[in-house]
Structure formats: structure tokens, C-alpha cells
């Protein structure tokens, strides 16, 4: 019975967890419940992935109504991969969250904060698993509202402003998404994505469908912070509480990318997207602009969280670049980078979160000498940084390898050069931090800093270790990503 | 807020009707326009109306803050558990068919229960939000 | 048609006004007009919701916010180019898309022939509920409604988290105004 | 003449688009946070019409089954828009709560003033 209902449980368990948390008064109990939920999630997700790999996509009819009538949950290789990514990241971060939240959030709000965290998780998982266009919108809003709340609880008052800006832009994005779905619905009469795809056959090039494509692309791009629609992201990441930043950076934009892939390849079909429309050119241009523009801005940031946030915008550029290259290797690179970037950004933000926890310092110039005081945390930071650069032996290298390979396959040697060149910029901003942290004398609050307690140390080190492990043994990550890419591209050939 | 006699009497007359109307909207939703959400809003409007006229404190005496706060998750809990109940009886999540003697009655009962869940969360949330805004100025 | 024209007029008013109090009241009027349009379109449930939410709850909350902040908008010192561009581009895409939609009011469009007839034909045998909107909302697409309730739940917790408790009187803000 | 005929035939589309675009314009152009949220509300509300109009069948009645009628308008868009309205008010409520907190923290709700102030930090 449980096995048959896993797709529903994947979303309903965090929801029930949130309900329970909201009933409680004690933060520690809420944390324990959240922890249990977050440990169950990867188990469900990995079971689903295993099922998909052995016996093909799973379709689950919610309420027992067959798909175009009711809402369908559809798990395929790609969505199972995303589910696993989101739930693993949540599970790793939760032990870390306890201390960090105790320090950053007022005690009477802990239970609510955990409830909101679980709701955010529920929304993200719901977006990734749903096979219904409107259901995706509803869960997008669950996760977005939860995200605004998570961000707004940052200690700096600018967190409120960041949350407000994100709320406005996020809502515009969601409304654009709704407009796009509305056009598609008007033309097909259905909201089920698979049904929609089959009923779009023959009218792909009608005007409402093209308009729908435009609105969906812009709406989702706002959510995934595609350059130049990224302006909400740096402030949101810079001022949110540490755990929220790390969790959102590792998951939220990834799920939006998944949506884009889903619409491009399975609903509209790659032949529409890439054959007749300038999608490739637009995405190439924007991705390259993100890779360079955002990286260069990152170099000049004083606040280390902001620096990493800009770096995220640049890294999203690599992911969308994979979409634009749109051959097997390129797409594999893009998808595997979803996972890889989540690992390394998670490690980086957790390391910085620990610095904030121990010292309260967020400016790069104030971090002098931390390398000696917090060797393990700064070691994790270094690993994440090296991976951002794309040094062999880290996951960052794997993603870039596939991307360069994909670019060369398309005979775009100039693009391969650009990918390598943009990595050099990340050498500059990571190098800047490394120089300050290891080669300068400690002063101020840094002098008394030490590595944080184990509950914060281990998750960070685990992410750093995974950054290295999956950089060497790529069979799991790149293997699944490759399968997902094959499956997405099956529409073209 | 000025306590005006006319307002108070008007409120005393209106509020019971609002409650009746909310219940009508809730349970007549199967046959006419309406349902849990609309009823929740009307019920919340009743509390808000009361709070505006008689003051926040006296409203909070009748509808305490803590109760309202608990209503917010409770409704979702009811809704989600109805879904779980269907699942425990061997159907897919949110399939209400096994809840009644036959499939159609099961659906009908399920819809009524679920609408109550919606009512509880909506009314609770609207009042909680209103309380939060009003409470800010003290 | 008359209603739609009135809606447009109200919108112009909202754009022009700088007294936020008036803007909020116009927003309420807008919602009432919108609800009337919805009744014309046979969406009675939606109209009821729009009237109670748009004209009721959201106006109350807006007024509450105005009471806690202040009611005048400063003269916008904004560069008008970007907003104009965004608006025109969106408008163009909308015109491009909408004008090729199937004709208004016809019964043989994809929307009215594909999934919807199932609901109309089977609502009573499946669920014994004659109001099809209710049966679709709570059963056929019940999970959307669970999601919707979850959205409300999320918003409720978010607002409570933001606004509950005493104001922190931090020394930080320089230009904090004294209490009205 | 053809042009005028075209405009009149699509009159409701023109208005709907005008409403959406002006809502969006308010959001992007205005610096006052409350006004932005009003604009956001307008933008969302006008999108509802985009869903509801295709579901209307001329001569139909509201989708409440009864032996007296045989043609009903499409119930599905109504359900979707009910959900969308709820999502909309939830967003607006959170937005307003943020505005209240921003006003307490910064003493203003004009974006320009806040950005001006932020630069000296």
C-alpha cells in the first residue's frame, strides 16, 4: 500500500510535518519532527528513482481520477533526479539548521520557521513531481510564499526589502506562468502536461501557443534568475538567514530549471523550440552574459554571501547554456550541473553560515586569518571554491567537461573557449577570499573563532566530501543525467 | 475607535446573520454557489466586523489569538487526513470513495469534510492576519 | 461591455491617483466590477469569491496597512522607459496571442469539448453534487484545493511570523518617525 | 471600416489586455510599495478574465446542474480561478505584512528613498 502511494507521500509527508510543527510551541520538538520528515524524504525519492530506472515512468492519479480528468503525478528519470536532489539537500542541512536558527531567529518563532521550511520543501517537491500545469502553479506559490517568509526573517533589515522585491518579481513571474498556461489551456482544453503535449501536435506554430511559450519562458526565467531577470537573487541570498540561503541556493532555482526543461522538451517538443525559433541564440546570449557579467560583478563584492549569490547567477548561466547547446553531452552537462552546483553552493554557503555563526562576520576583509582559526570550515569552503572554478577532481570539472564537449560537438569552439575563460574569473573571486583567509593575520572577532560544533561541521564536510566524491566517481550523477538527457532529446530524433 | 451606539446595535443585529450566512454558504455549496473558502471569508468578516466595532481586545476574548493560530494548520490537517484516510482504505490519495457506503456517497462525504477543512484554515488565517495587522499598532 | 469600460476607467484612476487611500478604495470598486463581469460570464462562485476577497479582505488589509504606514505616494522620480518597454512588450505578446484564440462564446472550442463535458455529465453519478464547481474543486481537482489551502496556511504563518510580537525598537533606523 | 470592425469584434480582448498591461505598468513603474501591490492585484485579477472568457458558452447558464437547463458554461476555469484568487490574496497579504515591517525598519515605503538611504551604509 505504501509503495503504491509513494508519489503522493513525497509531497504529503512534508505537508503533514508542517501542520504538526505549526501546532507546537517548542522549537526543539519542531526541529525533531522536521528532521524525521527530511530523513524520510530521500528514502522515498531514491525508491522512486530506483523504480523509474527499472520499470519506466510512474503515473499516479490523485483522487483516483484518471489523468486528464484529475491531477496526475508523473515521475520520470529527470523528475526523480530532482526529487532526490532536493530531499538530499534538505536532509543534509537540517542537522545544521538547529543551531543556526537558534541564533538567528527569535525563539518564539522557531516552530513556525520549521513549518515554513517544510512548506517550502513541500512546494518544491510538488513542483518537481506534478504532471499538471495548474497544480505546478499552486505548488510554485506554496514554495514561493514560504521562500519570501524564509528570507524575510534575516537579521539585517534589508532582508525585508529583499523579500519584498522577490515577492513582487516572483509574483510577476508566477502570473506570467499562469498567462502562459491559460493560452495553452485555451488551445488544448487540458491541463495535464502529457495530454497537452499530444494535443498540441499540429498547432505548435499557432499564435496563442507561441505567446504561451513566450510567457512561460519569461515567467520561469524570473524564478530561475536567468540573467537579466536575476536582480532579486543577490539581495535575497545575501540577507536571508544562513540556512535559508544555503537551502534556497541549492534547490529553489534548480526546480525552476527543471520546469523549463519540462516545458521545452516534453510539452512543446524540442523540434518547435529549437528548429523554428531563435531559442538557441537567445539562451546562448543570456547564458554567456550571465557567466561573464555576474562573475565580474561577483569579483567586486565585499559581502561574501553576495559574492556567492552573484556566482550563483553565473552558475545558472552554465546550466541554461546546457539547455541552449541541446545535444546529448550539453544537456547532460546542464542537468548534472544542477546537482553539482547544489552540492558545491551548499557547502560554500554552509561554511560561510558557520563563519557568521561563530564570528558574525560577513565582509571578506574581516575574514582575515580564518583559515587557521577554522581550518575545517575553510577547507570545505576551499573545496567548494575549487569546484566553482572547475578544477579536476571536483564536480565542477565534470559539468564543465560535458558542456565543453557538447559545445565542441556542435562545432562551437568559441563557446568552449568562453566556458574556460569564464572559469578564470571565478579564480579571481575565490582567490580573493582564499588570500584573505589564509595569508593574513587574524584580527577582531576572528581571533577567538574556532570550528563550529559537530552538528554544523559534519553537514558542511559531508557536502564538501560529496563535491569531491562525485567529481571522481561520476557513474551515479552523470549516468542518471545522461539518461535524463537521452529521454528529453528523444523528442527530437 | 469610537464606540457608537448605532454601530453597536447594528453589529448585534448583523453578526448572527453573518454567522448564519456563513453556514449557509458552507453547507449549501453542494447545490448553489459557495463552499468552504467563501464561507471562511464570511466567517472571518464577522470577526473582523466585531473587532472593528467592539475593539480588538473584546474580539480576542471571544476568539482567542491562540485558537485562531491553531485553526490555521488544523484545516490543512483535516484536509490532508481525509486524503490519508482514503489511502489507508486502499485507494489513491484523496480518493474519497471508500468513505461512504458506495463510491458516490463516499465522494459526497469526502467533499463535505474537505470543505470544512478549507473553512477552518481560511477563517483562521484571515482572522489571524487581521489580528496581526491590528496588533501592530499597540 | 459597459462593465469592461468602467473597469478600464477605474484602472486609469488607479494609475493617476497619488492618494493611496483613494487608490485602495478604487481597487475595491474594481473588484466589485470584476465580480459583475464574472457573473455575466456565468462564474457565480468566482464572482462571490472575488467580491468577498477583492473588495472585502484585501481592501481591509490594504486600509490596515495604510493606517500603519502613510497614505501619500511621493511624485515618482522614475525613469519611464523601462516600465513602458515592459508594458508594451507584454501587451504586444498578449495581442499576438489572444486575437487568434477561438471565438468567444462558442461551444465547440477545445476548452469546452475536451475535459469539461466529463465533469458536467458525471458530477452527479460520481459525487451526487449538482454544483459542478464544487465537485471539481473538492474532488476531481481536490489536490489543487489542498494546495490552495496550503498556500493560505503558508501565508498565515508567514504573516504571523512577520508581524506577531512587539515591535523591536532598534536604534538603527535614522529617519524613523514618531508615532502618529 | 475593417479596422473599426476588428476593434469592436475584439473589444473585450482589448480591455482585458489594457487591464493586464496597466497592472504590470504600475508594478514596474511605481516606487511606492503599497501602490505596487495594488498594481500586482490588478494584474492578477485581470488575468482571471483570460481564463473565464473561453469557458463561457453563449446561452449557457452557471454550471449548477438542474433539470431546467441543458447548456452550461465550463466549470473548470471557474475552479482554476477560484484557486488563483486565493493564491493572489495570500501573496498580497504577505506583501502587505512585509510593507508594514519595512515601514517600521526604514521609516518609509518609497523604494527610491530606501535605495538612497541604503547607499550610505
Which keywords apply here?
heterotetramer; B: 138 residues; elongated; C: mainly alpha; 8 helices; globular; disordered C terminus
Description:
The complex is a heterotetramer of chains A (493), B (138), C (180) and D (121). Chain A contains 19 helices and two strands. Chain A is mostly helical. Chain A has a domain of 216 residues. Chain B is mainly alpha-helical and 138 residues long. Chain B has one domain. Chain B contains five helices and no strands. Chain D is mainly alpha-helical. In chain D, 75% of the residues lie in helices and 0% in strands. Chain D has five helices and no strands. Classes of the chains: A mainly alpha (493), B mainly alpha (138), C mainly alpha (180), D mainly alpha (121). The interface between C and D is large, with 98 and 86 residues.
Structural class by sheet pairing and helices of chain D: mainly alpha
Tell me the Rg of chain C in angstroms: 22 Å
Helix and strand pattern of chain C = HHHHHHHH
Q: Helix content range of the residues of chain C, please?
A: over 70%
Strand content of chain D: under 5%
What's the average pLDDT of chain C?
A: 79
Strands, helices and their partners?
The complex is a heterotetramer of chains A (493), B (138), C (180) and D (121).
Chain A: H1 6-23, H2 27-55, E1 58-61, E2 72-75, H3 77-104, H4 110-129, H5 133-152, H6 158-188, H7 193-200, H8 207-224, H9 232-239, H10 242-276, H11 279-299, H12 304-325, H13 328-359, H14 370-373, H15 375-389, H16 395-409, H17 413-439, H18 454-472, H19 477-489
Antiparallel strand pairs in A: 1-2
Helix pairs in contact in A: 1-2, 1-4, 2-3, 2-4, 3-4, 3-10, 3-13, 3-18, 4-5, 4-10, 5-6, 5-10, 6-8, 6-9, 7-10, 8-10, 9-10, 9-12, 10-12, 10-13, 11-12, 11-17, 12-13, 12-16, 12-17, 13-15, 13-16, 13-18, 13-19, 15-17, 15-18, 16-17, 16-18
Chain C: H1 2-16, H2 20-40, H3 44-68, H4 81-98, H5 110-113, H6 116-127, H7 132-140, H8 142-163
Helix pairs in contact in C: 1-2, 2-3, 6-7, 7-8
Chain D: H1 2-9, H2 11-29, H3 33-55, H4 75-106, H5 111-119
Amino acid at each position: 500500500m505504501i509503495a503504491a502511494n509513494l508519489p503522493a507521500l513525497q509531497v504529503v509527508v512534508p505537508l503533514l510535518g508542517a501542520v504538526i510543527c505549526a501546532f507546537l510551541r517548542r522549537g526543539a520538538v519542531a526541529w525533531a519532527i522536521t528532521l524525521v520528515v527530511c530523513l524520510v524524504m530521500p528514502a522515498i525519492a531514491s525508491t522512486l528513482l530506483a523504480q523509474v530506472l527499472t520499470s519506466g515512468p510512474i503515473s499516479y492519479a490523485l483522487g483516483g481520477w484518471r489523468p486528464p480528468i484529475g491531477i496526475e503525478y508523473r515521475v520520470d528519470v529527470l523528475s526523480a533526479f530532482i526529487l532526490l536532489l532536493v530531499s538530499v539537500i534538505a536532509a543534509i542541512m537540517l542537522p545544521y539548521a538547529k543551531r543556526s536558527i537558534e541564533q538567528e531567529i527569535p525563539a518564539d518563532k522557531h516552530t513556525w520557521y520549521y513549518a515554513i521550511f517544510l512548506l517550502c520543501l513541500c512546494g518544491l517537491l510538488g513542483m518537481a513531481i506534478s504532471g499538471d500545469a495548474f497544480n505546478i502553479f499552486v505548488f510554485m506559490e506554496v514554495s514561493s510564499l514560504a521562500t519570501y517568509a524564509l528570507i524575510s526573517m534575516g537579521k539585517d533589515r534589508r532582508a525585508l526589502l529583499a523579500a519584498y522585491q522577490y515577492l513582487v518579481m516572483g509574483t510577476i513571474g508566477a502570473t506570467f506562468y499562469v498567462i502562459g498556461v491559460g493560452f495553452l489551456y485555451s488551445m488544448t482544453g487540458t491541463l495535464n502536461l502529457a495530454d497537452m503535449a499530444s494535443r498540441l501536435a499540429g498547432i505548435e506554430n499557432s499564435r496563442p501557443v507561441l505567446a504561451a511559450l513566450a510567457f512561460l519562458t519569461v515567467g520561469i526565467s524570473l524564478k530561475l534568475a536567468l540573467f537579466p531577470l536575476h536582480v532579486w537573487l543577490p539581495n535575497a541570498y545575501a540577507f536571508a538567514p544562513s540556512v535559508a540561503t544555503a537551502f534556497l541556493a541549492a534547490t529553489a532555482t534548480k526546480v525552476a530549471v527543471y520546469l523549463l526543461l519540462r516545458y521545452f522538451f516534453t510539452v512543446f517538443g524540442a523540434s518547435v523550440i529549437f528548429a523554428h525559433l531563435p531559442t538557441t541564440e537567445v539562451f546562448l546570449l543570456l547564458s554567456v552574459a550571465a557567466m561573464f557579467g555576474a562573475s565580474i560583478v561577483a569579483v567586486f563584492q565585499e559581502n561574501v554571501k553576495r559574492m556567492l549569490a552573484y556566482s550563483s547567477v553565473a552558475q545558472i548561466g552554465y546550466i541554461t547554456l546546457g539547455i541552449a547547446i541541446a545535444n546529448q553531452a550539453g544537456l547532460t552537462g546542464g542537468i548534472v550541473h544542477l546537482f553539482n552546483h547544489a552540492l558545491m553552493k551548499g557547502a560554500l554557503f554552509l561554511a560561510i553560515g558557520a563563519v557568521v555563526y561563530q564570528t558574525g562576520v560577513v565582509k571578506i576583509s574581516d575574514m582575515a586569518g580564518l583559515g587557521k582559526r577554522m581550518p575545517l570550515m575553510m577547507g570545505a569552503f576551499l573545496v567548494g571554491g575549487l569546484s566553482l572554478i572547475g578544477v579536476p577532481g571536483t564536480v565542477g570539472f565534470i559539468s564543465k567537461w560535458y558542456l565543453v564537449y557538447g559545445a565542441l560537438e556542435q562545432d562551437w569552439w568559441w563557446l568552449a573557449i568562453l566556458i574556460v575563460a569564464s572559469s578564470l574569473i571565478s579564480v579571481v573571486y575565490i582567490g580573493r577570499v582564499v588570500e584573505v583567509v589564509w595569508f593574513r593575520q587574524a584580527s577582531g572577532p576572528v581571533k577567538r573563532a574556532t570550528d563550529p560544533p559537530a552538528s554544523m561541521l559534519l553537514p558542511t564536510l559531508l557536502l564538501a566530501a560529496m563535491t569531491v566524491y562525485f567529481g571522481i566517481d561520476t557513474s551515479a550523477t552523470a549516468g542518471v543525467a545522461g539518461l535524463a538527457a537521452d529521454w528529453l532529446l528523444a523528442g527530437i530524433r | 475607535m469610537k464606540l457608537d451606539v448605532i454601530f453597536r446595535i447594528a453589529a448585534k443585529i448583523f453578526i448572527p446573520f453573518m454567522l448564519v450566512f456563513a453556514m449557509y454558504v458552507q453547507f449549501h455549496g453542494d447545490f448553489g454557489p459557495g463552499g468552504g473558502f467563501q464561507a471562511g471569508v464570511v466567517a472571518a468578516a464577522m470577526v473582523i466586523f466585531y473587532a472593528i466595532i467592539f475593539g480588538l481586545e473584546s474580539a480576542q476574548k471571544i476568539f482567542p489569538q491562540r485558537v485562531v493560530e491553531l485553526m490555521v494548520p488544523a484545516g490543512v490537517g483535516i484536509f490532508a487526513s481525509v486524503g490519508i484516510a482514503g489511502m489507508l482504505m486502499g485507494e489513491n490519495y484523496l480518493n474519497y470513495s471508500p468513505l461512504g457506503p458506495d463510491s458516490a456517497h463516499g465522494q459526497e462525504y469526502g467533499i463535505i469534510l474537505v470543505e470544512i477543512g478549507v473553512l477552518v484554515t481560511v477563517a483562521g488565517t484571515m482572522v489571524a492576519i487581521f489580528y496581526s495587522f491590528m496588533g501592530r499598532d499597540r | 461591455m459597459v462593465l469592461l469600460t468602467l473597469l478600464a476607467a477605474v484602472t486609469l484612476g488607479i494609475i493617476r491617483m497619488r492618494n493611496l487611500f483613494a487608490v485602495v478604495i478604487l481597487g475595491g470598486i474594481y473588484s466589485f466590477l470584476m465580480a459583475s463581469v464574472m457573473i455575466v460570464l456565468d462564474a457565480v462562485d468566482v464572482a462571490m469569491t472575488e467580491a468577498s476577497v477583492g473588495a472585502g479582505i484585501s481592501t481591509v488589509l490594504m486600509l490596515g496597512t495604510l493606517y500603519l504606514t502613510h497614505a501619500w505616494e511621493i511624485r515618482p522620480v522614475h525613469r519611464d522607459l523601462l516600465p513602458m518597454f515592459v508594458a508594451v512588450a507584454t501587451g504586444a505578446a498578449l495581442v499576438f496571442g489572444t486575437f487568434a484564440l477561438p471565438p468567444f462564446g462558442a461551444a465547440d472550442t477545445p476548452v469546452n469539448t475536451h475535459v469539461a463535458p466529463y465533469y458536467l455529465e458525471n458530477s452527479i453519478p460520481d459525487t451526487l453534487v449538482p454544483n459542478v464547481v464544487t465537485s471539481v474543486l473538492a474532488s476531481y481537482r481536490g489536490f489543487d484545493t489542498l494546495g490552495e489551502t496550503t498556500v493560505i496556511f503558508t501565508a498565515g504563518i508567514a504573516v504571523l511570523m512577520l508581524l506577531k510580537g512587539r515591535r523591536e525598537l532598534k536604534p538603527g533606523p535614522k529617519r524613523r518617525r514618531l508615532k502618529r | 471600416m475593417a479596422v473599426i470592425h476588428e476593434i469592436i469584434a475584439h473589444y473585450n480582448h482589448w480591455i482585458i489586455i489594457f487591464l493586464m498591461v496597466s497592472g504590470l505598468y504600475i508594478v514596474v513603474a511605481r516606487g511606492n510599495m503599497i501602490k505596487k501591490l495594488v498594481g500586482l492585484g490588478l494584474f492578477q485579477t485581470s488575468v482571471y478574465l483570460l481564463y473565464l472568457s473561453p469557458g463561457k458558452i453563449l446561452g449557457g447558464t452557471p454550471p449548477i446542474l438542474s433539470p431546467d437547463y441543458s447548456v452550461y458554461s465550463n466549470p473548470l476555469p471557474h475552479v482554476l480561478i477560484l484557486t488563483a484568487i486565493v493564491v493572489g490574496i495570500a501573496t498580497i497579504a504577505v506583501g502587505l505584512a512585509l510593507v508594514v515591517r519595512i515601514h517600521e525598519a526604514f521609516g518609509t515605503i518609497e523604494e527610491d528613498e530606501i535605495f538612497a538611504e541604503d547607499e550610505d551604509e
